[in-house]
Amino acid sequence: MAIAKRPSTEMGQRLFEYAAAPEATDHLKIADSYALFVGGRFVEPHSRRRFATVNPATEETLSEVAEADETDVDRAVTAAADAFRSWSRLSGAKRARYIFRLSRLMQERARELAVLETMDGGKPIKESRDVDVPLAAAHFFYYAGWADKLEWAFPNRRPRPLGVAAQVIPWNFPLLMLAWKIAPALAAGNTVVLKPAETTPLSALAFADICQQADLPPGVVNIVTGAGSTGAAVVGHPGVGKVAFTGSTEVGKQIQRATAGSGKHLTLELGGKAANIVFEDAPLDQAIEGIVNGIYFNQGHVCCAGSRLLVQESIVEPLLAKLKSRLGTLRVGDPLDKNTDVGAINSRAQLEKIEGLVNSGIEEGAEIYQPECRLPERGYWFRPTIFTNVAQSYRIAREEIFGPVLSVLTFRTPDEAVEKANNTPYGLSAGVWTDKGSRILWLVERMRAGVVWANTFNRFDPTSPFGGYKESGFGREGGLHGLAAYVELS
User: Which amino acids are annotated catalytic?
Assistant: First the structure.
């Protein structure tokens, strides 16, 4: 019998590198410039202004995109209002056919959309491919199923569409947030004017092409690109009956003030500072994966990210040892490489914000840990980061960083865990890790968060409502609750 030689210590300590596995981009055609999508066709902007959208991994300009002004927005709202008269009277079954068609086309063009989302936003291709695009298509599929069943969705009530829906979406999940908003709006009989984030407009413009491919009636979906002034014009237009916004709490407050007294229906999905609570009886290895998914998924560009880790004192040392070891396996780099776990920060401005808050944590006395990794020379990058010895008063424990930065705090009792978890102006999400089902139910009753995950994190489904409390906004998206936000009941 042959005996295999034991590898030398040097061989055992050698790091084995992954071979690069880049996603092909030759099937993707990005135009040199894009116009606005109004009334079922692409039209040049009245403003005659354009801005660049940049690949954050390379800092290369991908395309020049039209910047809509108030005149452009007025044209889009007028087109949506004209289309509303016929779209709202269309039978639910016929509206469903169009929405099903949008879902199928998104599935057919999934590879194109995933690569586009990764190049424009910086997220790893495996996340765009396996999460963003499938979930976006699933939302259209789900709400298509409700389009001809509104009477069953709201029994003993008469649902009526609200009119033109103004929708402003963020840059962290461009295509998915588009689906969260457009799908229920169309199912309920509304028409849409959508304003994507200025740093990630390309997937929305690709969706405009899908609307044409699906023969969606002109004006049912309109897409106007631009920065904050464009979004303000969309939200403030008097022809709008519904406003839906996902983004920062600061902008959400401005929108609430702007729409106060106007009679416009409003839903806001804003920032978060989620607590991820780990008890001593939790399945530790499973919890480690949930912690990593909770904060380093999409570079931490997640409003419901588990950015505050609350660990029971008795297990803090073994948990941190495992967590630091796990961070050493995360691959930071080219988002188009299928091996990449942490991609590029979305923009230079966001990178500077992350760096500023991290520096404040160091200055206030927290202990920083970052794994060794080589960052690309070009692009916007930040290493996965852990802060320990964090006090609740520190900025890194109070403010939304929106980056791959985790603050670790400890607790002794369940009551203390709840008190620390709720000690935030936000209330979007939370996580609980424990082997006791009774403890999960006890905590869920006491935690002021819109979504509480148990022994998992960042799990989404079109049938499940999502939204927050306090400064995380109000209203729900997803499920029947998301459909209710786009109808008036009598």
Answer: 269, 303
